[in-house]
Amino acid sequence: MTAHAAPKADRALLSPFRHRDFRLFWTGLILSGIGSQFTTVAMAWQIYELTNSPLQIGLLGLARGIPQIIVLLVGGVLADAMDRRKLMMWTQTSLFLVSTTLALLTLGGKATPLTLYVTTMLLALFSSPEGPALGQFESGLVAAWLGAELSALTEGLATLAILAVVAAAFPVIRRYQIAR
After folding, report:
1. Is residue 132 part of a domain?
2. What is the pTM of this model?
3. What is the pLDDT of residues 16-28, one digit of tens each?
């Protein structure tokens, strides 16, 4: 009985991947999550390189946290008031544009601590409404009977993104002895 339960549970967990829209959605979430985590690590590293101050890393986190808390308070209302798909597309496009602008400024040697503070605040501002919209959007993406499996797959995306970035960044951090 248990030998047959495990394969059936695995099939149930992976059943949302039979739907093209879900595969696209899930792949986009993973790529976006990894990109967001890389941006967070890179900005912390960059501000440390510019200022040589661990305090500035903490202030960068504070600059992200304050707008996030404020916007999260109204994020659910915004997700209810707008078309969730459009809201998510708007937030992802905005995040991409802000990250691209920072990359161009960095490559041009024009990035300053102020640039990083403004960028992190904009990233927080644009990413905060996405959480509530994502939660409501995913429930309608696949048929209702796949809801539990869908939630199980999407719940771990942030953790997966963090682990991927840590795994990729650890050798670099160790090589350059950034963390002492």
Report:
1. yes
2. 0.71
3. 677 787 788 778 8
Q: Please give the backbone phi and psi of residue 87, each rounded to the nearest 5 degrees, phi first.
A: -60, -45
Could you report the per-residue pLDDT of 43-57, keeping only the tens digit for each? 999 999 999 999 999
Q: Is the pLDDT reported for residue 125 higher than 70?
A: yes
Residue 172, in any domain of the structure: no
Domain count, the chain: 1
Q: Say which residue the tokens 């959007």 belong to.
A: 137
Residue (of 134, 129, 135, 131) closest to 78 by Cα position: 129
Determine, yes or no, domain membership for 102: yes
**What CA–CA distances, in Å, run from 146 to 27, 58, 72, 142?**
18, 41, 27, 6
**Can you give the length of the chain in residues?**
180
Task: Please choose, from the candidates 154, 106, 124, the residue with its C-alpha nearest in 3D space to the C-alpha of residue 36.
Answer: 124
